[in-house]
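Holo prediction — 2-phosphoglycolic acid.
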Amino acid sequence: MPEYLPQYAPEIIVLDDARSAEAHSAELIIDQVVQKPDSVLTLPTGGTPLGVYKLLVEAHRLGAVDFSGITALNLDEYWPIDRDHQSSYARYMQDNLFHHLNIPAQNINIPNGQAEDVDAEAERYKALIDNVTINLGFVSIGPGETCHVAFNEIGSTVNSRARYVMLDPETVKANLQNFKEPAEMPTGAITQGIADILSAERLLFLATGAHKARGVARSFEGKIGPDAPASFLRLHPAVTVVLDRDSASLLSKT
Ligand code: PGA
């Protein structure tokens, strides 16, 4: 296996609690959009960004920032899933962010969980990424030992691109709570690859809570490689890692 040596030290910011970490992350995103109103942003789903999205909605409501020029490029979507399913990421984004902002519908991009041909849909998404410069990629990490970033599960390579993936059993276990019936949970997803995520000019990584501490320490201090996909973020020259004390608790250097 190739040896990946960290070429850059990520900027690691540890704040007292989750709310402060969310507020700091929201500020970074708002600054990006204020400075470049036509920014292309990568956006994640899950529990972690919810507090950040609330703050973005509030800033928009107060007129502090205008999102009408941005392009949103979501990280992933289950497949197969109906876009209106209560646990689809399309629905999550609509409910928690897009419905409350003024991003034109044609600037919102999420892999289509209803696509008949999943590989063709992944190719479409890959081409879309190739056609833009992502100015800021907002990402998080999976729970436990998965160290997944988007749905790049253990084994994902640094060169991986947008594609169909099977979900890791640990991810299935963690995300099952979002589905009424276990049988409703898709076994796969369309995800941006590690190379797609690393193509962003800047990355913002947010983790909060003690359940993320092992993954954070493994990814930012352990060996870089496919057994901890989030560790590949250390190959990027401009990553800001925003943590609360709990998620930073197993880092030796903070
Ligand atoms: P969480 O999930 O933010 O809900 O913890 C993140 C992920 O699984 O990528």
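READOUT: The chain has one domain: 11-244.
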